[in-house]
Amino acid sequence: MHSFTEENYLKTIYHLSQFTASPVQTNAIADGMKTRPASVTDMLKKLSDKQLIDYIKYQGVTLTEKGKTTAVGIVRKHRLWEVFLVEKLKFKWDEVHDIAEELEHINSALLVERLDEFLGFPKRDPHGDLIPDQNGFFEPVQNIHLHEMSCGNKGVIIGVSEYSSAFLKHLERLGLTIGIIIEIKEIADYDGSVELLVDGRKINVSREVTQHILINYK
Amino acid sequence: MHSFTEENYLKTIYHLSQFTASPVQTNAIADGMKTRPASVTDMLKKLSDKQLIDYIKYQGVTLTEKGKTTAVGIVRKHRLWEVFLVEKLKFKWDEVHDIAEELEHINSALLVERLDEFLGFPKRDPHGDLIPDQNGFFEPVQNIHLHEMSCGNKGVIIGVSEYSSAFLKHLERLGLTIGIIIEIKEIADYDGSVELLVDGRKINVSREVTQHILINYK
DNA sequence: AAAAAATTTTAGATTTGTCTAAACATACAA
DNA sequence: TTGTATGTTTAGACAAATCTAAAATTTTTT
């Protein structure tokens, strides 16, 4: 078995490699793990010894199959527990991330499958993220961030890419929750803030916010 | 916050002090924690520094109020999670102990209270152990072990004091589960094995088994 | 292509929890 | 009450995960 720390490194590397095809760099991992680059280097050696990552000095890392399987397993647990907390225990979507960070390390394959069944095999978690199935598969996503869209574009809010309570509460106050249909009315040259049409109302959101909203856009 | 290890020490000390009024000894803790006496001594110093135990060299330890509160909190979580696993996820009573050992360290007061509510404020866990309430209170138990009873005595199986899957499966095979009424027909001088009357049938159980069955006997 | 900047790694230290072996304290028995 | 057995603590080491400071490598700039 792997330590919590090892699991967290794998998860961080997994999430970082979602955004790029190239190897994940030490500094990026250090940021994600809120630790120092020197500590990351130490851990990369260990994960490499355990065949969980391919590591080339100074070049960065990629997950091996074994590493990816482990990482996806943790992501699956995290998202299932989030569904449990919201659906069964009446938590709000901004309250569950930190608790799920702990629960994701509970080690029992049977538990995960029973939980999945108990929850009715949910497809997405409360933040709109897809839940990998028992074999680690899930349809590749082709969402784009709101800030990548252009004037006149329409779409549906399908998820977020930031899970802090502060951010999620802010979205809720703005009425920008999952499933909401939005249309881009104007993008300010000055600060990148965006005017949205939501449910007939006009709403102004900062660039900061647009960078963390995922849109299902075709 | 306390580390998992610290929490496990506190829990072990708590359980050991259930059986005796006198201070808990280093070797007993080492047994319970499956570690060495020298390691226990190191940890006792740390717990003492944190005011979780009263520790006198060579004499043993007792929990402080703070230590007891912490320990009971962990026991509460353990037992609530066991109920969840059996009642909601359809685990068997012999499958839940190890998973609950992990879940008991999840850190969220709100989670515990929501879980309690979700489960309908259960009074006992699947092994018959009482679940402390939110304030750590629970009626003092006056169960006795089956091996402490005499010929002709009757009682109800109210719990167990051993949680291994092997033991619990054995009980189930014998039909000795919680709520079952038993009567002692005979106690063998030779090996301490006991003949029980259960539901009209006669059953013979080893002394080993009688030492881990708790009876509500008045 | 050399210099400067950014990134990454090494070296050496620290903390937590563990260990073995040896010393120390207490209990008990002759 | 002295000796032996049992139980406990100290001393010194080790592994995991982290850190700072310095050295090494790669990338970017001029």
Automatic annotation (TrEMBL), chains A, B:
InterPro entries: DtxR_MntR_Metal-Reg (IPR050536), Fe-transptr_FeoA-like (IPR007167), Fe_dep_repressor (IPR001367), Fe_dep_repressor_sf (IPR036421), FeoA_core_dom (IPR038157), HTH_DTXR (IPR022687), Iron_dep_repressor (IPR022689), Transcriptional_repressor_C (IPR008988). GO terms for cellular component: cytoplasm. Coiled coil: none annotated. GO terms for molecular function: DNA binding; DNA-binding transcription factor activity; protein dimerization activity; transition metal ion binding. It holds the Pfam family FeoA. It comes from the Bacteria. SUPFAM superfamilies: C-terminal domain of transcriptional repressors (SSF50037), Iron-dependent repressor protein, dimerization domain (SSF47979), Winged helix' DNA-binding domain (SSF46785). It comes from Pedobacter hartonius. Keywords: DNA-binding, Iron, Transcription, Transcription regulation. This is Transcriptional regulator MntR. The lineage of its organism: Bacteria, Pseudomonadati, Bacteroidota, Sphingobacteriia, Sphingobacteriales.
